Amino acid sequence: MACRDAHRGAELLDFAQFRDSSTQALVYGYGGRSLPELRAREFGRLAGTVYLDHAGATLFPQSQLASFTQDLTENVYGNPHSQNISSKLTHDTVEQVRYRILAHFHASPEDYSVIFTAGSTAALKLVAEAFPWVSPGRESSGSLFCYLTDSHTSVVGMRTVAKAMNVTSIPVRPEDMWSAEKRGAAARDPNCQLPHLFCYPAQSNFSGTRYPLSWIGEVKSGRMCPVSTPGQWFMLLDAASYVSTSSLDLSVHQADFIPISFYKIFGFPTGLGALLVHNRVAPLLRKSYFGGGTAAAYLAGDDFYIPRQSVAERFEDGTISFLDVIALKHGFDALERLTGGMENVMQHTFTLAQYTYTALSSLRYPNGAPVVRIYSDSDFSSPEVQGPIINFNVLDDNGSVIGYSQVDKMASLYNIQVRTGCFCNTGACQRHLGISDEMVKKHLQAGHVCGDDVDLIDGQPTGSVRISFGYMSTLEDAQAFLRFIIATRLRLSSGQAIPQDTLREAGTPLAESEAQNAVTATMNGCRPSPQEDTCTDSRVWNDLLTAVDAVGLHSPVLEATRTQQTSSEKAAGALDGGLGPHIITNLYLYPIKSCAAFEVTRWPIGNQGLLYDRSWMVVNHNGICLSQKQEPRLCLIQPFIDLQRRIMVIKAKGMEPIEVPLENGEQAPICQSKVCADRVNTYDCGEKISSWLSKFLGRPCHLIKQSSNFQRNAKKHSKVMRTERKKYSP
Ligand SMILES: *Cc1c(COP(=O)(O)O)cnc(C)c1O
């Protein structure tokens, strides 16, 4: 059987066997702590979701929030700049948290200071603005700003600040650093104090490559040189990605500046980061702006400003996010309690990454072609050189890349969350994908911008797919992901991969057709492989089966309800005679956005197109419109419009059909919603349908309908916009 052939090489790697055969002592889990129990207790909200974007943002444990909110409800925290008792409590607690952060990085308060910022990016911007750059002039050749090309956008952006100072920026390729490492000794003039800055990531957020921390000492001591030039090198270690799954020992690797974002370590709070600054450079930093809390003294009417002594007080303009700072304490506590420390997190996440990498890189099509191309600088040999990030593109059996958007959509259908694109790291993206500078510019001209879904241009990928593990990731997460790749690429009824052409046929239908094939393969009587056995209880798998069932052309739901449509079609009125050469025979309405289609052969036109087409939508508890991307089960909800009875009947498997009036009789309150970037007026269709939908989708949600005065308002709005523009244009 052809199907059997497709299985070759597609078996899931047996984890126990993998671990036994490894040359290293691989650690999975956190000793006596049960990982499944930890997941159930702290991350219940993940139920059924395979979250693999921890490098984007990791997830906070429930107990962190619980102890944080308890802290806030039991204590009075005032503004830390006041002098009263609640203010003193805030000040002292914040200072305590600073020590806690330093302790986490094995740094002493004698050596390092913590400046709270809005995140890593704000910390990088602060360094760019405060660094003691020397502009080139008669006596000096000027400072240099050097950065590894595998740096995050937020590092590269520092060069605009440098440029304003006439400071030269020099991008340094990883290859050049690696060879500089081998070359060794560079000339250093101890008398030359000209300050240069070199920035590199401890871990690439693109590939998970870990660059040697030893570079800090090597460059600072002059044994290694990013660029051969006299002067003194200051080192910025971008640790934002690295520290989410590793410990960082600043007592050994004494970088001058270390930016971090806390949501990457424990998921909460967001919008809070820090710049760790070595105290030896703190006095050199310049301040270009002064805000509340930073002044020892200043005059309102004269150019007189004396900054405060401590570097933190000098650079934290305004009131810091003090309640969020207090949340950090609970974050560190929870992380320690759940894992026993960052060393364990590093081992656990590395084991998952090495297992997944080994399995993924061994997947082959029946013709021997690899299923994925992995972009990495290491072979995942140790956590010293590789973090728990795997970056890749999926290939077809001819070796052509399947666009990342397609993979993303397909993964969503399996409830797997990955990250796609170029990950705010164009340098790494270009290097790994072989995209030249000219091509980047050409892609822009072709309409591709960072973060969109233009994934292939002339068959060449513009980005890739990234999966990343966090401290609470499990083997089941890794295996669900691998099963997804196997099911979509290798389990086809024909035993052949879907040709590229079919795959490019945009959007959901394609994903559905592929999913259908995947299921056909398993139902065609293939021997059940071990992975099938293990996945029968997984909601991911079940979701797919139901989703496929629903979108099948001969869906029983659709067949059973044809009679209702006929009566509606009659009500739509006859339009006989005088038909032109082009005749529309079938019409599909989508009365509820993202839900199943309602098929008719005749239908009235309303003032916005087909009457009642996309008039309703399902929104979550915050009023956010749900799409199939977040809620694949929407496609199982089948609306029917009965124009005669002026109702919409909604059906779904396992639910009693429910009726919703086509227009709001009781004048429900109108509110504003955002749909596809447009603001529209809507009203809520009531509690009854809300609880019906909530029951079916297993989460609180509502049905809302566009208010019929929408059109008029939209017109009025755009008219106002036009006159405004006229008024202000020169
Ligand atoms: C995330 C990240 C940043 C930027 O962090 P923000 O929290 O977005 O400011 C910078 N560098 C690296 C390596 C990162 O992973």
TrEMBL record:
Q: In which pathway does it act?
A: Cofactor biosynthesis; molybdopterin biosynthesis
Span of domain Aminotransferase class V: 50-481
Question: Can you tell which superkingdom this protein's organism belongs to?
Answer: Eukaryota
Cofactor list: pyridoxal 5'-phosphate
Q: Does the keyword Phosphoprotein apply?
A: yes
Q: Which UniProt keywords apply?
A: Molybdenum cofactor biosynthesis, Phosphoprotein, Pyridoxal phosphate, Transferase
Give the Basic and acidic residues compositional bias ranges. Answer: 721-730
Q: Which Pfam families match?
A: Aminotran_5, MOSC_N
Give the molecular function GO annotations. Answer: lyase activity; molybdenum cofactor sulfurtransferase activity; molybdenum ion binding; pyridoxal phosphate binding
Which InterPro entries does the record cross-reference, listed alphabetically?
Aminotrans_V_dom, MoCo_sulfurase, MOCOS_middle, PyrdxlP-dep_Trfase, PyrdxlP-dep_Trfase_major
Which processes are annotated in GO (biological process)?
Mo-molybdopterin cofactor biosynthetic process
Per the record's keyword annotation, is 4Fe-4S included, yes or no?
no
Q: Residue ranges of the Molybdenum cofactor sulfurase middle domain?
A: 584-700
Q: Where do the record's region annotations for Disordered lie?
A: 709-730
Q: Which residues form the active site?
A: 424
Q: Which reaction does it catalyse?
A: Mo-molybdopterin + L-cysteine + AH2 = thio-Mo-molybdopterin + L-alanine + A + H2O
Residue(s) carrying N6-(pyridoxal phosphate)lysine:
264
Q: What is its EC number?
A: 2.8.1.9
- Its biological purpose: Sulfurates the molybdenum cofactor. Sulfation of molybdenum is essential for xanthine dehydrogenase (XDH) and aldehyde oxidase (ADO) enzymes in which molybdenum cofactor is liganded by 1 oxygen and 1 sulfur atom in active form.
Q: Which family does it belong to?
A: Belongs to the class-V pyridoxal-phosphate-dependent aminotransferase family. MOCOS subfamily.
**What is the official name of this protein in its record?**
Molybdenum cofactor sulfurase
Q: Which organism is it from?
A: Hipposideros armiger (Great Himalayan leaf-nosed bat)
Cite the source lineage: Eukaryota, Metazoa, Chordata, Craniata, Vertebrata
